[in-house]
Design brief:
alpha+beta; Deoxyribonuclease I, Chain A; six-stranded mixed beta sheet; five-stranded mixed beta sheet; 6 helices
C-alpha cells in the first residue's frame, strides 16, 4: 500500500519589509488546489536586522515585531485559499532574522511522530545570523526533515566556499535524539541559499529577458558545487522556468543593475531542493514557480511536492 504526503515548500527573503499590510495575492499560483495540501513549510529571511551581533556578547535582543505578523498573515492567506479544510500551526522557530513556519492540515498532526526541531548557527555578521532552523518528524514509518536556511551572502572572495561550509555544517548537525540532519529518508532545503551566478550581470539580465534560464544556470554556483561534489550532492531541483530571484528594484519586476556587481548581480539565491535517501520514497514535483510579490528585492519561490511512501 502506498500513502502520499502533499508538501508545499516556499521561501521569501522579505528584505526587512514591514508586514503590517500584507497583500499575498500574487504569492502562489492560483491554479494550485490548496485543499489537497497536507503540510506547508515556509522559510522567511531578513524579517529583521540583528544589530551589532559580533560586538555584544550576549547579542542584543532581536526585534520580533515582524515575525508573528508574517506568520499569522501567511496562515490566514493559506486558509483563504482552502475551501473544504483548514490548516493550523505545526511548529515555528527563529534564528536571527530567519523564521521557520509550518502549517498542517487540521486533524493530521496526530499522524506525525518524533517531532523535533533545532536551530543551527553557522556565522554572524553586523546585521544577521546565518544558518538554518530545522524540523524533523516521522510519518508512516518514514523520516522527514526540513531546513529554513539563510547561508553566507555576497559573491566576492571566499564566500562561495563559506556557503559550502554552511551547508556541510547544517547537514552534519544532530538533533537531540542523535539523528543527523542529513540522515533522513526525505530531506528538503528551503531558503535564501545565496549561491550566485558566475557571469556578467548584463549578460544574465539579457539571457533572462530571452528566457534562457538554463544558460544562466550553467554558471550557477549551486549547480557547480553539485557537479564538484562539494554541496547538495544527489539533491534534486525541479526545472527552473523563471528568471533569477534576486536582485530587484523594490516595487518592480526589474533587476537592480547599479549596485556593486561583485555583490549583487542577478542570481538564483532562493531555492527549494530535496533529496531521497530511501527506495520506498518517490517524489513528484507538481509545481515550481516564482511568486510576483514586489515589496522586497527578492522574489518568493514555491514548490509543491507529492511524496509517495511504499508500505512495508
Amino acid at each position: 500500500m502506498t500513502t502520499t504526503l502533499k508538501v508545499f515548500a516556499g521561501t521569501y527573503n522579505c528584505n526587512q519589509r514591514a508586514a503590517d499590510k500584507l497583500d499575498l495575492t500574487n504569492w502562489t499560483n492560483h491554479q494550485i488546489e490548496h485543499d489537497n495540501i497536507d503540510i506547508y513549510i515556509w522559510s522567511f529571511q531578513e524579517l529583521t536586522t540583528v544589530t551589532n551581533v559580533p560586538v555584544q556578547n550576549p547579542p542584543p535582543p532581536v526585534d520580533l515585531t515582524n515575525f508573528p505578523i508574517w506568520n499569522d498573515g501567511t496562515l490566514d492567506y493559506i486558509n483563504q485559499q482552502r475551501k473544504n479544510s483548514k490548516v493550523v500551526k505545526l511548529w515555528d522557530g527563529q534564528l536571527g532574522g530567519t523564521m521557520f513556519a509550518s502549517y498542517i492540515r487540521e486533524g493530521f498532526k496526530n499522524q506525525l511522530h518524533n517531532i523535533q526541531a533545532m536551530a543551527v548557527e553557522c556565522s554572524r555578521s553586523k546585521t544577521t545570523i546565518k544558518g538554518a532552523i530545522c524540523l524533523r518528524f516521522d510519518y508512516n514509518g518514514t523520516s522527514f526533515v526540513f531546513a529554513s536556511a539563510h547561508l553566507t551572502a555576497d559573491q566576492e572572495g571566499d564566500n562561495y566556499e563559506l556557503r559550502i561550509r554552511d551547508y556541510n555544517y547544517v547537514s552534519q548537525t544532530k538533533f537531540k535524539d542523535g539523528a543527523t540532519f542529513g540522515d533522513h529518508d526525505f530531506i528538503c532545503w528551503t531558503g535564501d541559499l545565496n549561491f550566485r551566478v558566475n557571469a556578467d550581470r548584463h549578460l544574465i539580465a539579457q539571457l533572462s529577458e530571452e528566457k534562457k534560464y538554463e544558460e544562466i544556470l550553467q554558471h550557477d554556483q549551486l549547480r557547480i558545487a553539485q557537479l564538484g561534489k562539494k554541496a547538495f550532492v544527489d539533491y534534486h531541483e525541479a526545472p527552473v522556468t523563471f528568471p533569477p530571484t534576486y536582485k530587484y528594484i523594490r516595487g518592480t519586476n526589474q533587476f537592480c543593475l547599479t549596485e556593486p556587481p561583485e555583490k549583487r548581480s542577478p542570481a538564483y539565491t532562493d531555492r527549494v531542493l530535496y533529496k531521497i535517501n530511501s527506495n520506498k520514497v518517490h517524489v513528484t514535483v507538481d509545481e515550481y514557480s516564482m511568486g510576483a510579490l514586489l515589496a522586497s528585492d527578492h522574489k518568493p519561490v514555491n514548490a509543491l511536492l507529492t511524496v509517495s511512501i511504499k508500505g512495508n
